[in-house]
Amino acid sequence: MAIASPRLTSMAHLPLLSPPPTTFSSSSSSSAPPSMPTSMPPPPSSSSSSSSSSSSSSSLVFDAAVLSRQADIPAQFVWPAEEAPAAEAGEEELGVPSVDLGAFLSGAPGAAAEAAALVRWACERHGFFQVVNHGVPARLLAEAHRCAAAFFATPLPEKQRAQRRPGDSCGYASSFTGRFSEKLPWKETLSFRFSPANAAAAADDLVLKYFLCTLGHDYEHIGRVYQEYCEAMSRLSLEIMEVLGLSLGVGPEHYRRFFEGNDSTMRLNYYPPCQRPELTLGTGPHCDPTSLTILHQDDVSGLQVYTAEDERWRTVRPRADAFVVNIGDTFMALSNGRYKSCLHRAVVNREAARKSLAFFLCPRMDRVVRPPPALVDGRNPRAYPDFTWAALLEFTQKHYRADMKTLDAFSHWIQSTNKGVA
Ligand SMILES: O=C(O)CCC(=O)C(=O)O
Questions:
Q1: Which InterPro entries does the entry mention (predicted)?
Q2: How many angstroms separate the alpha carbon of residue 350 from the centre of ligand 1?
Q3: Distance 415 CA to ligand 1 centre (A)
Q4: Which of 291, 315, 354, 356 to mutate to test the pocket of ligand 1 (most atoms within 8 A of CB)?
Q5: Residue ranges of the domains in the chain?
Q6: Ligand 1 pocket: which of 303, 317, 349 to mutate (most atoms <8 Å of CB)?
């Protein structure tokens, strides 16, 4: 997610990818370092050392319409051979069970046991499963994708009205504006915070207010759509928590209650086509430091998951009627290491733009992350110390690029810095 000290590069050395904008500053991005999982990443402020005042004609400016047709892709987007997607990567599909949430919620005989068994199977292996019959209206999903497409199709100056600022986790970011690193991901994102209304009075309509305050009244419709979408995702994540709790033998309420006042992030990902998709990545390999990710892909493939046993990348094919769910590091800690948070990435392709909608469930910042006592015993001692989500977030933003060892590195860090929970 974050790296200790992102390499800073003078803007003057970065090539122009398209003619410099004349009407806006393109250099004030606080985009995350390239391999940040896009979960919540305000980058270290040092990575955004340029300010809008340093905008110049030598700024790196992305224009998807130009870049997506260009055969000669700029060096910053070329990944080292060992990380670039091999031609055969993703040819095989990942085995992701489909959990029938409707049947589970209806209390149909056997449905809870079946859902719990499928989830346990997936989470002990790679942490990815799908939910179907989830109750999120198809109309809402279609509108959420339509609004994302409309937002990313607007001219760059318009999108940059929502530019993510240094230290913020919300806003518009493209790897292409104001990045000072190599291995840039081939994408644009828009992120905003969500917390359910009953978590804090001030959280009422947080998403709608974000759009109105940042982009103005023309964005009221899109704000309402994502407000409704995030409410649906928060509800869905609590239902999934019931299944996860059952699957771990701690009952349906334990994790549901833990996340009732969640403080989550929604991210819209847009990956333009790329003429050399074998050289670059839409989202670099990462594990999510958050608790649970609920992803909806449009009809273009791109999500790949790394299976460590055979060292392969496997595709999770898009399914219009399903959400892809994956375990993040925080839930791995809540399960005392039983469930896996797994490396994944997004590849791009030559022909079609791709979109995905990612909801990152996170606990309240001050919640103590600790597994239930039933998951700890002599044979299963505590895998990680107590911590708050705020501390893990700080670690992955400022000190460490999220990978398969994040929790181990974080455990050492909190012990050595006294950032743990007393
Ligand atoms: O777009 C995708 O399929 C994956 C996105 C992702 O991993 C992320 O946003 O963290």
A1: DIOX_N, IPNS-like_FE2OG_OXY, IPNS-like_sf, Iron_ascorbate_oxido_reductase, Oxoglu/Fe-dep_dioxygenase_dom
A2: 18
A3: 31
A4: 356
A5: 77-421
A6: 303
pLDDT digits (tens, 9 = 90+) for 273-321: 999 999 999 999 999 999 999 999 999 999 999 998 889 999 999 999 9
What digits encode the pLDDT tens for the residues 53-102?
Answer: 233 334 556 677 788 888 899 888 999 999 999 877 878 999 999 999 99
Q: Which string of b and e fits 326-356 if b means at least 16 CB within 10 Å? A: bbbbbbbbbbbbbbbbbbbbbbbbeeebbbb
Q: What is the pTM of this model?
A: 0.85
CATH class of residue range 77-421: mainly beta
Scanning 160-265, the segments in alpha helix (DSSP H) are 206-215, 220-247, 253-258
CB atoms within 10 A of CB 203: 17
In 264-338, which ranges are continuous DSSP H helix?
329-334
Would you please indicate which residues are annotated as catalytic (active-site) residues? Answer: 354
Percent helix, percent strand, percent coil in the chain, to nearest 5 = 35, 15, 50
Q: Which two tokens stand for residue 196?
A: 């359910």
